[in-house]
Design brief:
By secondary structure, the chain is mostly helical. The chain has helices at about 5-15, 25-40. It has 2 helices and no strands. Helix 1 crosses helix 2 (about 25-40). The radius of gyration is 17 Å and the shape is elongated.
Length: about 60
């Protein structure tokens, strides 16, 4: 999974799922607050899938 997809999944889980905002402006403000908070505490990504099959040079995808 792409790092960006993970970030959008977290945004959906914490901000959008089960929400009932009274307007688009309120929803936009909630998303902006989440992004500002996430950016404030952001750290570099360091934990890559070291043992993942896709990182091995002998890995060949099974495609038609």
């Amino acid at each position: 999974m792409n790092w960006v997809e993970c970030e959008f999944t977290a945004l959906r889980y914490f901000i959008l799922d089960g929400s009932d905002y009274p307007s688009h402006a309120a929803q936009e403000a909630a998303i902006a607050r989440y992004i500002r908070g996430a950016n404030k505490h952001a750290q570099p990504k360091r934990h890559y899938a070291v043992n993942s099959k896709i990182r091995r040079p002998d890995y060949l995808p099974n495609v038609a």
